[in-house]
Amino acid sequence: MPINLPVILLLFGAMLWGLTWIPLKYFNEQGIAGVSVVLVAYGAVSFALLPLFAKQYAIWKKQQDYIWLIMFFGGFGNLAFTTSLMYGDVVRVMVLFYLLPAWGVLGGRIFLKEQIDAKRWLAVGLALSGAFMVLGGFKIFETSASWIDLFALASGFTLAMNNIAFRATPKLPDVSKISAMFVGGFIMAILFMILLREPLPQGSATNWAMVIAFGFFWILVATLSTQWAVTRLEAGRASIIIIMELLTAVVSAMWIGDETLNKWEMVGGLMIIVAAVLESRRGKESSEYERPA
Questions:
Q1: By three-state DSSP, how is residue 103 classified?
Q2: Whose CA is closest to 290, among 190, 172, 202?
Q3: Could you give the angle at the alpha carbon of 245 between the alpha carbons of 244 and 251, nearest 5°?
Q4: What distance in Å separates the CA atoms of residue 148 and residue 58, rounded to the nearest whole number?
Q5: Mean pLDDT of 82-99
Q6: Looking at residue 216, what DSSP letter applies?
């Protein structure tokens, strides 16, 4: 039986993303703020990719508006994803983040004029209803949502917009787009440190070496694995496989982190998974899933 390398790499990348919460929680225990992790990890990778990014300027300069969009949406999305996972309940954050397919469908209709048929509207309705239940149903009108919930939702939305920018620029090199996401994360971290008046990152040299290694050997590897694989698989097949990210995060958090969901959160999460499966089973006509850096 021949080895299907794209499937193996996509599974590997999805599982890496699903386990990202483990090093992030560790960094938090060491007193390293989420913004600082993004600043150092994404900054280190950005400087490494900068020569390639600059070398390809002649290719992407005519579509630099999209590069700026990728910097903004990808940068903020990664910052929001990292900080919400770092400080929040892993299962809850991942379930809310996984509204990404629903945002992608709506964004594709608005910006790329993609058609939405009955099955797609059903998927969107299930996803949004599931998120409503995870957030507490009608209780959300009694109390304000936490900033972690808002960041989890924002990360899914902005990364969906980032993926639309990816789909709208098939002729741009993947290296340029991935570089733009890392640079955007680095810039966003600087802006948030200024806005929040956070002090410069402090900590032991060992911990910061681990953060840099996390950027290169975890985030960058996961990004390259998923990006390479989704360009070589049918979009529907890739989207089903990528659900392993959510399942890995939920199972590992419940097993290792002793996290739980109440019955309504479980029902809501199941609705979001069903919505993702419905959208992913559309075959070649469905949108490609491109996971953020």
A1: helix
A2: 172
A3: 80
A4: 40
A5: 86
A6: I
Token pair of 152 as six digits: 């989890």
pTM: 0.81
Give the Cα separation of 162 and 43 in Å (integer).
Answer: 19
Gap between the Cα atoms of 292 and 242, Å rounded:
12
Among 61-75, 100-114, 180-194, the least confident range: 100-114
Geometric angle at alpha carbon 235, from 232 and 239, rounded to 5° = 110
- Note the pLDDT tens digit of each residue in 117-147: 777 677 777 777 777 777 666 665 555 668 8
* Contact of 207 with 26, CB cutoff 8 Å: no
Distance (Å, whole) CA 268 – CA 266: 5
Q: What distance in Å separates the CA atoms of residue 189 and residue 209, rounded to the nearest whole number?
A: 18
Tell me which of 7-16, 104-113, 250-259, 264-273 is least confident.
104-113
Residue 120: helix, strand or coil by DSSP? helix
The structural domains of the chain, with segments of one domain joined by +, span 11-23+33-285
d(CA 216, CA 207): 15
| 58 vs 56: CA distance, rounded Å | 5
Residue type for position 62:
K
Q: Are the beta carbons of 275 and 127 closer than 8 angstroms?
A: yes
CB 166 within 8 Å of CB 289: no
Identity of the residue numbered 113: K
**Pairwise pLDDT comparison (277 vs 180), residue with the higher score:** 180
Distance between the two ends of the chain, CA-based, in angstroms?
Answer: 32
